[in-house]
Every structure is written in C-alpha cells, then in structure tokens.
Amino acid sequence: MSDTTATAGRGSGTPTSGAPVSETPEAPQQNKLLAQIFNASVLTTVLAIVLSMIIGGILIAATDEGVQDALGYFFARPADLFVALWDAIAGGYAALFRGAIFNYDSPTFIRAIKPLSDTLNYATPLIAAGLGVGLAFRVGLFNIGGRGQMLMGAAAAGAVAFTVQAPFIIHLPLTILAGVIGGAIWGGIVGILKARTGAHEVILTIMLNFIALYFVAWLLSTPGLLQRPGGNQPISPATPETAQFPLLFPAPLTTNWGFVVAIAATVFVWWLIERSALGFRMRAVGENPHAARAAGISVGRIIFYAMAFAGGLAGLAGVNQMAGTITSGFASHIDAGIGFDAITVALLGRSRAWGVFAAGLLFGALKAGSFTMQIAEGIPVDIVLVVQSLIVLFIAAPPLVRTVFFMNGKRMKRAQRLFAAKEVQA
Fold it and tell me: Beta-carbon neighbour count of residue 298 at 10 Å?
C-alpha cells in the first residue's frame, strides 16, 4: 500500500477493506461547556467560595469609614490602618454570622437561633428553583426562564387557593399541585419549541419571562381574576390559611413546611437523575445528544421532559412564595429575583441535587445575614450580591482559581487527593 492510500484511509476513518465506519459526532460546545463546569472538583468550588469571601472582605474594608480615615494619616500611625481593617472585615463577617446562623448577642436561645430559621426560609425557594435550573443543565439546556415559570406557578397556585373552598389537608396539596403544573406547562412550552423547531432555549425562556410577567400583571389588574376584590391595585387577595404552609416551629422562628417540601423535591430530583431510567437518558442527552440519538433515545422527548420538570420545580418555588413567604397578597414581582439567583445556585451546586441544596442554604445565609451587616455595620447589601457574582465567576473559570492559588496541574491533583482523603475520614 502506498503512503497516499494509507493516509487517505486514516483521514477518512474508513478501513482499507472499504467497509464504512460510522463516527458519532462530537457533543455540541454548549454541552461540553456545562460538562467542564459541573465536573470540576469539590476543592475548586471551596476555593472559589474562599476567594470570593476574600474579595468581599476587601470591598467591606474599602467602604468602611474607619479604614478611609486611617488611610489619611497612614504614615503617621500605620498600625491604626491594620486595626481598622481588622475591625471592618471581622465586624462585617461577624454580623453576617449573627444574621444568618446564630445571634450570640440575643438574650434568649429562641432569639439566638432565629437567624438560622430565617436562612432556611430564604433558602427554600432558592433550592426549589435551583433544582429546576440544575436539572435542565444536566440535559445540556440553559434554563433562563425561572422567573416566568415561578410567576406562572404562583398564578396557578393563587387561582386554586382563592377559588377552592376545602379543608387544609386538601386545599394546600391542591395549591401545590396547581403551582407545579403551572410552572411545568410554561417550561414544557420551551421544551416543545426547542424539540420541534430547534429554537434556542435561552431566547425562548427570556421571551417567555416577559410574557409571564405581563400576563400575571394583567391577571392581577383585572377584577374577577386574581385582583383583590374591592380595590383597584394590581395585587391578589391574601392567601387563605388552609392554603398556607404552616410554621415548623413556634414564632418567632420563621421556617415553614415549605422547607420540608424542598427537601422532598431534592430527594425526588436526586432519584430521578441518578437512579431512574429516565434520568439515565437525560444524562446521556446532556453528555452528547448526537450519541444519545444514535443509541435510540428520543432526544426531543427528553428535552420536553427536562424543561417540564424544570418548570414544575420553579413553579414550586412560586408556590412557596405565595403560600409561605408573601401570604398577605402578591404582586407581579413575587419572584423577587429568585428565578435568576437559581442559576447561581445551580452553578455552585454543580447541578447535583444535594449540591444545589447546600448552595441554596449558603445563598439563603448570605441573604439573611446581609441585612444584619447593613444594620449593625453599615455595610451595603450590594457587597453580598458582588460576592455571589464572584462565586459564579470563579466556578465557571476553574483555571482562574488554580492560577490565583498558584496550583498547577500536579499540585491541583495532589491537593484534590488530599481533600478527598479528608472527606472520607470525616
């Protein structure tokens, strides 16, 4: 065989016998990008959080008046600057701890653990919506429609809560079911359009966010629909007590049974993705839809299922807002930005069910503690938002984290093995 013939055979992927060999196309770049992000090590995630907190501390110090004053006479008394830096950073993060976990300055134990209950309360809708975004990520889909799915879930849940007269044991489950179905329909629309027409889910979900926003605003402004009777303001009636999540613990603790529902949703998503046959097909499509199609998997159907499940979970977050957090009547901004925060939670949790659960708790703690930081230390709440954004930035760029901590490939692998060994021992 001549060199030319051999080269042609190797380049075409066809053996010299002439029998064709089918090659599975590579996975789309979108799927590769998500796989790279979500296959990053736990150590990278921890270092991303640490680095974000360090930068947050620098921002706290930069906005502190004591630090700014000490800078004015640094060369006269340089020690004052370091004392001011410590007071600003330590005071800020101590206030964050007191507002999110345990307030050691409170006179009673119940008051001391109230911050923890506030954290769980803030984390509940973040967990539900984050599970929806993370589930879509596992199938290679960017679900940016959490806001619209939450709004439609809240509207559907409100329609049942305000019109159905039933005892608590029936009324609340019906309200939850209606919210999940409302969000699932809104997410399923994206799945159908994506599967049938190939339209990109990012564009679809963003546009449907606006449609949901104005549709719910219209419902809340129209008498006889979701508008509160006897008024002309775009706000719903108060949620009936039989459709509300009851408190898990007596007041002043704020955690309600919505948190238990969020735990159940986490277990369900873990089982669905990691243990069920449908979850296996979802993961296959997420890895490489071309290979999944070649293996006989209906990619379009899986895309629809994934977006419907994702929408249902976001709808559950909307139910929690309507039936657990804002029970005095909701407006068109009931989503409170949770639909977009859920993207951050899913990225931090690497789209694993229990990772999203832990990330939701972390972000709930940051939100709960930010108010205490502002009140006690005068630190802007926006700094916490910056920390959240930095966490996403560093998680989406693992090489940047390794560069900052001077960890090359060999050092990183050695540190990962050490970190994993410590996890096993714990």
Answer: 14
Q: Which residue has the tokens 């991303």?
A: 48
Can you tell me the distance from the alpha carbon of 317 to that of 143, in angstroms, rounded to the nearest whole number?
15
In the block, residue with structure tokens 């089982």? 271
Phi, psi of 186 (to 5 degrees): -65, -40
Of 263, 416, 286, 418, nearest to 350 by C-alpha is 286
* Phi, psi at 247, each rounded to 5°: -70, 140
Angle among Cα 344, 348, 352 to the nearest 5 degrees reads 110
pTM: 0.84
Using DSSP's 3-state secondary structure scheme, residue 20 falls into coil
Q: Residue 113's closest CA among 14, 251, 240?
A: 251
Residue that has been written with the tokens 């630090």 in this structure: 67
pLDDT (tens digit per residue) in 94-118: 999 999 999 988 888 998 999 999 9
Task: Measure the N-to-C terminal CA separation of the chain; round to a whole number of Å.
Answer: 61
Task: Note the maximum CA span of the chain.
Answer: 91
Residue with tokens 């907190």: 53
CB 269 within 8 A of CB 313: yes
Cα separation, 164 vs 305, in Å, equals 29
pLDDT digits (tens, 9 = 90+) for 235-277: 999 999 999 999 998 888 889 999 999 999 999 999 999 999 9
